[in-house]
Amino acid sequence: RGVAKSLCGATSSRTSSGQSYRTSAPSILARRHGLQHSTDRCRAYVLPAHVGADASDAAAGARPGLECQGPSDQHGVTLTCGSGVPLSWVQVPQPLCQQAQCAAAGYSGASPTLVVCMVSQPLSPGVVKAPALPCAAEESTTGDEAAQAALLRGGQRPKLSASTLRRRRRQRATLLASLRRSEELATDNRETIVQLQGVGDVADYTALVDAINAGGEARAAAIASLHGRVAPLSFDAAGCRAVQLALQSADGPAVAEFASELQGHVREAIRSPHANYVIQKVIEVLPAAHFCFIAEELQGQAVEAACHRYGCRVFCRLLEHCPTAPAPAALVDEALMEATALCRHAFGHFVAQSVLEHGLPMQRRRVAAVLLADPLGFARHRSARHVLEGALEHAGTEDRAALVAAFLGCGPGELAELAQDQHGAHLARALLELPGGATAELRTRFRVAVGQLRSSRHGRRLAEDLGL
To answer: Which ranges does the UniProt record give for the Pumilio repeats (predicted)?
Structure first.
């Protein structure tokens, strides 16, 4: 009974060897093997068993049903039923280690036996289960808890709204894109990273960081030990922290020498989840003359680097610390050849924002001109609206005035549609926070279209904030 009760949901058991098996609910087994009714039970025999607590009550309470047996090893539990179908989703239960208890369970073998009681129950389509592997991730539930509860009570699954379905599609697309990027990164950089990590003897990074923080002779010795090893350490999760700390703590000549060791590895480094931080630190602590090689090595791949999840950070650091240097300025000009795509990209829009804040006047005007081509379209875009907000704050006086005039040129209905949009509502608030007479004019436009505003959730919130 205790085992059957624990199996009503996803649970975690620990064997006597100390390995933790996180497994799914038994309803998956019931569905896969045709146990359609709530009265169906199945009993599984698992060999070998670990010596443990008494489970005779659970065995006695199990009704006859599907019988399976198979090995249990460090990879989890795999059962095979009479039809030869392997069952990879199973709870590791308490063992039966006495002959009488084995007989009570209906098993007459000489080896100890484990008993699993699996209860058939409805399986929600929104639940994704994890395999029974040691220390595997726990179950991930994509459905609402209320929907799960309704199913278990025998009710109907509530209909999902259009916004919920869109959100789930975006989440799936983001996950798949992330997996593809990880695979591409591993394929593109595997040979380079393996070659780099093979250089030198990687020390205890914790001790290295502690020595640098200690100061004095310990710091000097630790920093000296990094010479010739900056590149391989930069691509390591722990080693990159030691390199960043050394770049921040060492004197000027040593830092310049460390930076020079990264030459020839910049394209790989900005795509690394670890080495990109080292590149950023080099830009932060050194004069532009010592890290212009970073911009030079990225030329020809400016757009790709600016739209990379890690490369965009390097672009932002270059714009913050040396926007007027020839090599970084040329790199930004190359990226702005695709300014429209940059503004709409999930990572590239950070670079466009940084251009508006730190770029050269001509570069800032180029971004503003792109935004003026379709202000309402950019305002409704989840990434581009951040660039528009940055332009209203950091663009030149003439460009800001042109953007405000473009929105004021819209009719009350168009502005109301903008405020009804999830992303456009943020831009509408940014417009209302601008100084000058534009705010009063916008309030008047929204007051005229207050009925249209209140027909959507986002517009209703804006109307309430404005007191309409």
So the answer is: 261-296, 297-333
